[in-house]
Each structure stands twice: as C-alpha cells, then as structure tokens.
Recover the amino acids of this structure.
C-alpha cells in the first residue's frame, strides 16, 4: 500500500525535504505501507515498535530509524503515552544534487538496507547535537529573515552528514539484541526475493529453495511482513519496475526484468498500485 497521509497528503514529496514535529495523544493504527522517498524518524517520547521489512525494532527515546524508499514498514503505537517524534522526508534528487563524488548523502540508507538493520542508537553527546540541529532547522523553516531558506537547506545537509557518519561507524544498536527481533529464516526469504525478482518466485519454488513446508512459509511470511507471499513479490516487482522506468529503461523491458511474464498483467498491476500509467509515472 502506497501511504498517502503522515500529515495531510502522505506519500508525496514535491520539495527537496520536509520536516515534521508530531505529537499524538491518541494512537493511530497504520497498515503496512511504503513511500517513494527516504525517511528518518527520531523518537522523542512514547512507546512505539516499528516493523521494517520483517524486522521488529523496539524504539527508545532518541533512537533514529532510517526507512529507505520502497521499504515496507509500519509503526505499532502504545496508546498509554503521547507519541512524539521528528520525521524528516528526503527526496533522492535533492540528496543527489547536494552530494559530492564518492560521498552520496543517501549512503546511510543504502548501508542500513544492505545490513538489513535500520536502527541507530547514539550517545548523549550526539543526541544533543541532533536536537540542536533540529531546533535550528525548525526555526529556519518558519523564519522570514534573510537567507533562511539557504540556512534550512544547509542544516538539513548537516543533519544528514551526521547520520551518515554515525551509520557508517556504529553498530551499537545491532549488538543490543533486546532492541530488535528478527525471524532469520524469513529474513533469508526476503533477501532472496529481492535478489531474484526476475525468476520464478511461487510459494512452491520458495518452499523448495528453503526446505520448508508450503503451509509454514505462507503463514509465517504473513505474520512477519503483513503481506501474502504473492502480494509482497508483486509489490516489490512493481516498485523495482518503477525505479527502472525512471532511470530510462523502456517500459516493456522494465516489466520483463522484474519478472512479469505478461505485459498486460504488468500494466493492470502498475495502474492499480500507482494510479497512473507507466508513461505518466516516468
């Protein structure tokens, strides 16, 4: 499900980045969803568990969660405490335009995806730096003083540079086994699916590949991801096809490269997911 409403119209980012400071006293129930932009969540207060691509993270105040575009995720919010967080949406074009050769600002998202671990837990000194940067960024975004827009742009880059540095050199939270829960077998299945989208990925084929029963795979997969095997594979294929189309790959070739055998099936599924044709999407 393409999520369309974090504040107002969720799922769409027309600017280079957007910052939200949110506090909910009533817990919302959100389904599994994904975005077309990258997202950083900084927890300030409350009790929330986040599930990202089958891995469950038990967040503490000041934890930073990185959710790359097209990763399927959802929060599970405990209503006993107000849920307060900073949410930063980041567009790929903006990050690319502000990156230096060999030092892409979205490296932190690529790194967390490759590790299969999306949680960053920092020391007290770095937490203070993050909070100061965020406060300055919030002020710059509403200021009408000279250069406020340029300052906001610079502060967002500063925040992202610090996150990259911390992700590259830190595995602290990953070593704290009580900070997350993962099903190793389902993690293997998810990684295999992502790496073999162009191949046959039926339930039977996956069950054979991982020496597990068809019944167990279907039920455990749904428990871990919130999707059926077929739904998950279809979504991943469509999301990858969208990326290829935007990179300039012809539509029919993109459909073939991600495992759609029939072009008409691909067009129907694409339209149902993105509510537009591949040409309009490009």
């Amino acid at each position: 499900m393409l999520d369309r409403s974090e504040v107002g119209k969720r799922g769409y980012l027309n600017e280079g980045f957007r910052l939200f400071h949110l506090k909910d006293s009533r817990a919302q129930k959100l389904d599994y969803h994904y975005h077309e932009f990258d997202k950083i969540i900084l927890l300030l207060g409350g009790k929330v568990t986040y599930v990202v691509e089958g891995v469950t993270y038990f967040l503490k105040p000041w934890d930073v969660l990185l959710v790359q575009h097209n990763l399927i995720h959802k929060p599970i919010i405990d209503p006993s405490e107000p849920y307060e967080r900073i949410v930063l949406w980041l567009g790929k074009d903006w990050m690319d335009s502000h990156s230096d050769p060999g030092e892409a600002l979205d490296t932190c998202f690529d790194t967390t995806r490759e590790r299969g671990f999306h949680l960053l837990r920092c020391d007290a000194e770095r937490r203070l730096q993050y909070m100061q940067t965020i406060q300055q960024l919030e002020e710059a975004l509403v200021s009408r003083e000279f250069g406020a827009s340029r300052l906001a742009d610079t502060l967002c880059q500063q925040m992202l540079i610090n996150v990259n540095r911390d992700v590259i050199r830190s595995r602290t939270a990953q070593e704290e086994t009580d900070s997350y829960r993962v099903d190793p077998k389902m993690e293997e299945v998810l990684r295999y699916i992502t790496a073999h989208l162009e191949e046959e990925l039926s339930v039977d084929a996956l069950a054979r590949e991982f020496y597990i029963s068809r019944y167990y795979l279907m039920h455990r997969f749904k428990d871990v991801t919130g999707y059926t095997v077929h739904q998950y594979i279809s979504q991943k294929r469509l999301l990858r096809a969208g990326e290829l189309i935007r990179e300039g790959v012809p539509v029919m070739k993109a459909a073939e490269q991600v495992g759609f055998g029939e072009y008409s099936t691909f067009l129907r599924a694409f339209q149902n997911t993105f509510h537009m044709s591949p040409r309009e999407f490009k």
Q: What stands out?
A: The two ends are 20 Å apart (CA to CA).
